Amino acid sequence: MQEKLQALKEDALKKVNQAENLKDLEAVRVEYLGKKGPITEVLRGMGKLSKEERPVIGELANTVRAEITRALELKKSTFEAEALNEQLRAEAIDVTLPGRPVSVGGAHLLTEIVTEIEDLFIGMGFDVKEGPEVETDYYNFEALNLPKDHPARDMQDSFYITEELLLRTHTSPVQARTMNEFKGNKSVKMICPGKVYRRDTDDATHSHQFTQVEGLYVDKNVRMSDLKGVLNQFAKQFFGEEREIRLRPSFFPFTEPSVEMDISCKVCQGKGCSVCKQTGWIEILGGGMVHPSVLEMAGYDPKEYSGFAFGMGPERIAMLKYGVDDIRHFYTNDQRFLKQYHNL
Amino acid sequence: MLVSINWLKNYVNLGGETPESLADKITKTGIEVEGITYVTDGLEDVVIGYVESCEKHPDADKLNLCQVNVGEETLQIVCGAPNVAAGQHVIVAKVGAVLPGNFKIKKAKLRGQASNGMICSLQELGVQEQYVPKDIADGIFVFDEAVKVGEEASHYLNLDDAILELGLTPNRSDALSMLGVAYEVGAILNEPVHLPDESYTTAPIEASELVTVKVEAKEDNPYYGAFIAKDVTIKKSPQWMRNFLIAAGIRPINNVVDITNYVLLEYGQPLHAFDFKKFESDEVVIRRAHEEETFVTLDDETRSLSTEHLVITNGKVPTALAGVMGGRDSEVSAETTTILLEAAYFAGKRVRQAVKDHQLRSESSTRFEKGVDPNRVKKAAYRALHLLETYAEATILSGVSEVDTLTYDEKEVVMTTDRINDRLGTTISDDEIAIILDKLAFNFDREDHMFTVHVPTRRQDITIFEDMLEEVARIYGYDNLAYTLPEGGQHAGKLTEAQQLRRAIKHYMEGAGLNEAITYSLTTEERAKQLVSPELKDIAQSAIRLKMPMSEEHSTLRLSILPEMLDVISYNQARKQKDLAFYELGSVFISSEQTVTRQPDETLRVSGALTGQWLSHLWQQEQKAVDFYVVKGILEGLFGRLNLKVSYQTAELEGMHPGRTAIVRLNDQTIGFLGQVHPTLAKGYDVKETYVFDLNVDAIIEAVDKAPNFNKIPRFPTITRDIALVVDETEAAGEIKATIEASAGRLLQSVTIFDLYQGEHLEAGKKSLAFSLLYLDPERTLTDEEVETSYQDVLEEVKIKHRALLRS
């Protein structure tokens, strides 16, 4: 009996080995392990065996069956793997063909600049404020220490709508509006980006519409050295750690003392070149300590409160930082121009 | 203001400063030096020569053969200048010299005669044509005075000078004079200022015997002084004076005119010299002009005046437009013998008015407009009289005929050391402050830590503490201020919800494939009225037009971003950019008044324009042109992103395709529209088939739920039922969908339209729409019966509302 089982096993394993496909394999399975197969037959005839033989033969028969099954499975998985490989070979594609395009747009360069400035100042505790583009004469000029007969208020320079309304010539009215909102008894720390308008003929360096970002900090005991510190932080973050800043005295009706800020020229490292007109410095922004009249008009007591303000032009900054050669590019919206800065 | 370094040296010791180092210091202390110009790049081998003989060239009519002594040798030079003559001291560029424009002087033969150098004109030495005195404009330069033959000529003609160009801010009109600049430089270098000679001898006759002054408009003219100089000799002014005038950008004319100009530059005080004979009167009357009075200025222009203008008259007719320009009829000329010298203080406002009305700005008016130093008015006259006596052999009459109501007082500003340090963030000591004030040459009283500064009248810009704070800070040096960060207010900055949402909308648009554009707010009046969203059209009573536009193109504030956006499409299409998708987020200006008196509503809109191919994946035969549904998909994505439910309704809007336009409604309000631009309008803008959208950002932001509640994730399975309905082709799918949503009951989660069919299997005029209904009960497992009930309700309702039948 044992010999018979051993011989069955040998036969079966041989046939498994010889099988050429899944069909052959299935035939082998049916032949040996099927309900009418020889192993089933052996197990069925167990009753005729002696008590001593029964467990021995039973165990052997089970072993033989397991071994044949394992061989079948193994062979089957080989066939399946081959079949899958065959299928995958047939499915191969040319991966060098172009993919299905995903059209992704991007922000305007000015938006990128303004957003970066906003985020930098938010990091320094400033809020972002906005104001109307059609402004009253009062907020645009008077509240900023530019009374009616001030020479800097020429009708020729501003787009007036009525005697009292005009397109704002700077974002500074938002200073006065914000201070008024706080009624002279709260610290103000904000920047305000926005569109401004001047009566200029459009050319490579002038635009009748452009962008400004204004900053204002009013509190008790604000010092001029704070202005210097904040602007220094900004300049280093925005233009690079290696850049130096320099403040020069200047004049604006709404600040006193007033400053202009230069940064060291990146092109020549401050040695002097055509970009910085041989000075080694490039003018970036204007600012100063808020004029006491401006504080007073907005309800702040200049003896108790002081503050600083500054303003800059994102177009100019973009032109310097990215070498844009004509301010009109920002407003003609040539797709080829816009796309150059979508990686920012 | 052009500042000659050589001239400046007359008043202040510049030590070892180079033009560059001085410019850098001036800039850092408060006046921006915008440029440094060297008159020449250092001329060598250009010397003074003496023309020993001058004969006609044997073979050329227009040339002369000159023997010129240049010290060590005598050179033969062929010269073509008409004014060359024997006995002249001239400027000779010797062989080897390089003149401006890289003009090298070489040995030459002209018509057979050797020429060993060149006799020069001022132009050839680099002086700009416009500054060359007219009498020598066509010839060589000839010295009037005895000069030393053989010496380098540069210094005699001030060709070794450097000119600083100062960019003055409006407050620093004190630096519109050489003395003002000298005080500034003196403060920077800590050097005293040496004042010019103002002395002269006087004849025993009083000026007031010859002329009286009457001022009728004292407010406009608080000081008027008339001085008399007799027996003047009109001739050229001395070379040094001509040199400095040229350096300052003023053309020399004759000694009298040059002296008034020179003093104007030196003191910042404009003076005017009348030919007293031609003045034809013994009285000077200063008054407002009469309405429609006319008068001819020095430049031969007839000026018509008004009561807004101040004039100097001889009691009858105007002889000068006060502070701006003199009159032709009383101009100093070669025949002049007696001069009436005017030194006056005219109010800036009056001068400004005249400048504006006559478009006539002069060196004088610029200074009066900004305000001159009261204490320098008379001093300037004294200085001019000194120069007239010296260089015009004038006899100066005693005294002055004047009307004087001018205030000469110095302003006082009080400051304490503590307050200065508090504001600047510094630790400057009392003594340091005193040193700074000394450098500025400001007088002051000091009491402990308190300073009372007597601000000199030349510094009209300083009136309050903060002005003095700036003076102290700039002399102390902005560079010396520390870098500190604000100590007060631990406020965390952040964007508001609205600002964050605006950024989210922009990011969405960019992610959806649109490029951000920024266009002008000002457009044409015609365009301002185009493509305005219907809800704005209802409010807007007018397009806001500028009072004085620069061009029609930018004359009116936009009511929609789209017209300028179409222009952007057109611009790009003209440059062969075919596939375009732009958006802009910005304000439009809506006024509810017919005549604008108040600020308009500034409503934020997000608008887009798309054209060309939306998707182009050619090798897989996938191509999709921009159409209505591309744009609608973008908007649906936006509202999906913001969790907002909007509806779309067919609409006919001006400028839009009547069959391909929808308005967008949110919470029962129209918030914008989308669709195809009407082909006629598109043609007007020269754009191809273009689709646009325009939405109210403020309304969207308002509607967004900023703090959404948590909804449980459903644990029970969903059931889907599909319905195919046959309806008239005019039935709107969206409305049927809305009916389904309204009638399906609470278990319906969503409805999707998944098929649209029109064709041979259907009756003409009909279409089939297929909807997929998704059911869910969040509390328990759905039963088929519940779904079936809902399904039947839906069928019932669509039959009633849309005559829809189940497709068999």
Automatic annotation (TrEMBL), chain A:
Its cofactor is Mg(2+). Its main location: cytoplasm. It is found in: Cytoplasm. GO terms for cellular component: cytoplasm. Mg(2+) binds at E256. Its EC number is 6.1.1.20. Gene3D superfamilies: Bira Bifunctional Protein, Domain 2. InterPro entries: aa-tRNA-synth_II (IPR006195), aa-tRNA-synth_II/BPL/LPL (IPR045864), Phe-tRNA-synth_IIc_asu (IPR004529), Phe-tRNA_ligase_II_N (IPR004188), Phe_tRNA_ligase_alpha1_bac (IPR022911), Phenylalanyl-tRNA_Synthase (IPR002319), tRNA-bd_arm (IPR010978). It catalyses: tRNA(Phe) + L-phenylalanine + ATP = L-phenylalanyl-tRNA(Phe) + AMP + diphosphate + H(+). Coiled coil: none annotated. Binds 2 magnesium ions per tetramer. Keywords: Aminoacyl-tRNA synthetase, ATP-binding, Cytoplasm, Ligase, Magnesium, Metal-binding, Nucleotide-binding, Protein biosynthesis. GO terms for biological process: phenylalanyl-tRNA aminoacylation. It is an enzyme of class 6 (ligase). Tetramer of two alpha and two beta subunits. PANTHER family: PHENYLALANINE--TRNA LIGASE, MITOCHONDRIAL, PHENYLALANYL-TRNA SYNTHETASE. Belongs to the class-II aminoacyl-tRNA synthetase family. Phe-tRNA synthetase alpha subunit type 1 subfamily. This is Phenylalanine--tRNA ligase alpha subunit. The gene is pheS.
From TrEMBL, chain B:
Keywords: Aminoacyl-tRNA synthetase, ATP-binding, Cytoplasm, Ligase, Magnesium, Metal-binding, Nucleotide-binding, Protein biosynthesis, RNA-binding, tRNA-binding. The keyword DNA repair does not apply. Residues 40-154 form the TRNA-binding domain. Gene3D superfamilies: 3.30.56.10, Bira Bifunctional Protein, Domain 2, Ferrodoxin-fold anticodon-binding domain, Nucleic acid-binding proteins, Phenylalanyl-trna Synthetase, Chain B, domain 3. Pfam families: B3_4, B5, FDX-ACB, tRNA_bind, tRNA_synthFbeta. Its EC number is 6.1.1.20. Residues 408-483 form the B5 domain. Signal peptide: none annotated. One of its GO terms (biological process) is phenylalanyl-tRNA aminoacylation. Mg(2+) binds at D461, D467, E470, E471. It catalyses: tRNA(Phe) + L-phenylalanine + ATP = L-phenylalanyl-tRNA(Phe) + AMP + diphosphate + H(+). Its cofactor is Mg(2+). NCBIfam families: pheT_bact, YtpR. Tetramer of two alpha and two beta subunits. Belongs to the phenylalanyl-tRNA synthetase beta subunit family. Type 1 subfamily. This is Phenylalanine--tRNA ligase beta subunit. It comes from Streptohalobacillus salinus.
